[in-house]
Amino acid sequence: MTADKFTVERLAAQKGRQRIPALTAYDFPTARLLDEAGVPLLLVGDSLGMVVLGYPDTTHVTMAEMEHHVRAVARAQPRALIGGDLPYRSYDTPELALAHARRLIAAGADYVKAEGGREILPQVQAILGAGIPFCGHLGMLPQHVVEEGGKYRIKGRDDASRQALFDDAAALEASGVFACVLELVTPPVAKEITQRCTKMLTIGIGSGPDCDGQILVTPDLTGAFPWFTPKFVTPRAQTGAETRRAVTEWMATLG
Ligand code: KIV
Known about the structure:
By secondary structure, this protein is α/β, with parallel strands linked by helices. It has helices at 8-12, 28-36, 48-51, 63-74, 94-107, 121-129, 159-175, 187-196, 218-222, 239-253; strands spanning 20-24, 41-44, 81-85, 111-113, 134-139, 179-183, 201-205, 213-216. Helix 4 (63-74) packs parallel to helix 5 (94-107) and helix 5 (94-107) packs across helix 6.
């Protein structure tokens, strides 16, 4: 194991003390750069479907594609914990969930993530029962985007949706889930979940400033996927534009 590797316990100890930065990585050089910058939590997210593979949404990502990208990230041997997303339909039953979680761990992931709350609890318990750390994902669930009419909607706006989020978060925490992504959850609800959960880390994305950590899709932060940037992200670089400039400049030197 890499010396000074981050652990679930070390990150858990940061709750209420120090915010946790998390970023997606899909390949070896990005994982290496993020590790050199000191990011403690990486996720090989199925967002790779859009920002790397050119699919319209995450529902097209396969298990073989996830394993391929987890392997590439693991080759960088980061100190950061590496997460692997269980892709669409790969965790329909507890047996499938565990078999696929084991494949992501064998590919080099340190933890796995799947979308949903109480409805996937048997799957979560099967994974945790095998000693595999699990990260939940509540709020807007990208793997449900087709069912939701193609819209990425904010969650927690009405009483029923708020209560469902509180109950899902409580159930995940009670199962022993170490962290949970809260995606597009209204900021007051994300804050309350963060306060109610005394052990489980909340990792927000588009859910306000009060979560235990924040995760972004790295190309959104670096400007590497300039054709779409979510409203809640301020890109800190323009690597897409910079690539175009470098290539154009080089072509001009050829005469
Ligand atoms: O797939 C992904 O990158 C994710 C993050 C947005 C949390 O699930």
